Amino acid sequence: MLIPSIDLQGGQAVQLRQGKTLELEAGDPRPLLEKFSRLGEVAVIDLDAAMGVGSNADLIRELVTLADCRVGGGIRDAATAIAWLDAGAAKVILGTAAVPDVLSQLPKERVIAALDTWHGEVVVKGWTEGTGQSLGERLAEIRDLVGGLLVTFVEDEGGLQGLDPTRVSPVLEAAGGLDLTVAGGVSTLAEIAVLDRLGVDAQVGMAIYTGRMDAADAFAAPLVSDRPDGLWPTVVVDETGQCLGLTYSNAESLRLAVDEGRGIYWSRKRGLWRKGETSGQTQDLLKVETDCDRDTLRFTVRQSGSFCHTGTRTCWGADRGLAELTRRLDDRRRHAPVGSYTARLFADPDLLRAKLVEEAGELAAAVTPDDVTHETADVLYFALTAMVKAGVSLSAVEQELDRRARRLTRRPGNAKPEGSAS
């Protein structure tokens, strides 16, 4: 599949030819990241750090909180790699530091080794220094210590002359089952489709920035359909993963959905369908994914109101669980009858605080499964009330938990001294 790439130099997104000549300035990387992240992970490369002439670290620390990023460039020791993983990077990309002593200190499933080659020789330090090693020789040293490889054919980078897939086959064989991403020269949708059939991802920058290739079209290049109309069945879910319904997409609707960041589909009866255009039940598009067979899409959306034309949240009826409770609490926050218990909780911070402490204490004292179940339900109810009162979404809390799960450096987790205000 497609891995969009954002290369940073002086705080701006840029594209270099062969790592040396500035070919394109794309400006503020944030809008690019917002669009690209709808299609999955995005490679964010600090060229200044890679070349040892500066750093875009502050900017990247912001970017990794906005999307799933593969961070690379200038990571030359385990401590720096761990710091990026703690900051929220989905993965780190190591080039010069992709050596056993460093890699052995890192979780292999979150490490990508960047093996950049110049006419067959592995090069390092921002493609400025040769190592005297071939790709196969370097790979033999680290294969068991990483989860993936990023191989860049530097002589083709930024040239838009295309990538010969026959160059990839020996690399794929040498990778020995590792996830493989290739970069350098990929410029057509057909190349992306061929690479995907080989089980290889394509990291693309220049072709997208210049308009030679649309990001959504590149994402769709490997997709297939067994339908006579060529449509792709599209499962629509909300931020919590709750399935809202089934729709269909084609290249045109997918392109518009990614460009506009909205739920836009292809109706089998009406053609192009912007969800909510007449009903007001709109969707913000958060992410597009494809299944393992490349014939079905999943849209993750932020749904306003109901999805189904019958007025229910989903096409299978009412929602339930924590997400439904959160929406119900939000509705009661705005419309609860004066004097009701829920209205009191939202209006009286002392009451809500007391209930949170009370219910947490009862959960801590619970022993039997039934008691733990009941007390956990109580704690969740009052915790969600506090969350809704503060204007925080359940998905924001889930994202925070996901970010914490990515951290390698752990706090001791000891209880605070009783009576401590901190």
Describe the structure in your own words.
The chain is of the alpha/beta class. The protein folds into three domains: 2-220, Aldolase class I (TIM Barrel, Alpha-Beta Barrel); 232-303, Ubiquitin-like (UB roll); 321-406, Helix Hairpins, CATH 1.10.287.1080. It is 37% helix and 25% strand. The chain has helices at residues 29-36, 47-51, 57-66, 78-87, 100-103, 135-142, 168-175, 189-197, 206-209, 215-220, 251-260, 321-335, 341-347, 349-365, 369-389, 394-406, and strands spanning 2-9, 12-17, 21-27, 42-46, 69-72, 91-94, 111-118, 121-124, 129-134, 148-153, 179-183, 200-204, 232-237, 243-249, 264-267, 271-274, 283-290, 297-303. An eight-stranded parallel β-barrel has the order 1-4-5-6-7-10-11-12, surrounded by six helices. α5 links the parallel β6 (91-94) and β7 (111-118). The radius of gyration is 25 Å and the shape is globular.
Give the biggest beta sheet. Answer: 8 strands, parallel, barrel
Task: Provide mean pLDDT, rounded.
Answer: 89
Oligomer: single chain
Architecture (CATH level 2) name of the largest domain: Alpha-Beta Barrel
Determine and state the CATH class of the largest domain: Alpha Beta
What is the CATH superfamily label of the largest domain?
Aldolase class I
Shape: globular
Model regions low in confidence, pLDDT < 50 over at least 5 residues: none
- Count of DSSP-assigned helices: 16
Indicate how many domains the architecture comprises: 3
Radius of gyration: 25 Å
What strand order characterises the main sheet?
A: 1-4-5-6-7-10-11-12
Share of residues in helices:
25-40%
Distance, first to last CA: 47 Å
- Protein structure class: alpha/beta
Q: What fraction of residues sit in β-strands? A: 15-25%
CATH topology of the largest domain: TIM Barrel
- Work out the number of β strands: 18
